[in-house]
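Review this today:
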Amino acid sequence: MKNMKKIAKNVIVKYGSLIAGCAFACVAMAANSACFGPFYEMEEPEGLEKFKKIN
């Protein structure tokens, strides 16, 4: 169990900025696109408005 914690910590330290950058890119894409198909589109969170390029 300690070995898994050590591995997880090393991965987060090594690739943390890459993970955060990908998450930010996903948020920016989601803010600028609409839901497609028959899927439910829930309400946008309040802070998402500042990431939109087209208002």
Q: What stands out?
A: The two ends are 48 Å apart (CA to CA). The chain has a mean pLDDT of 81. Residues 2-33+42-51 form one domain.
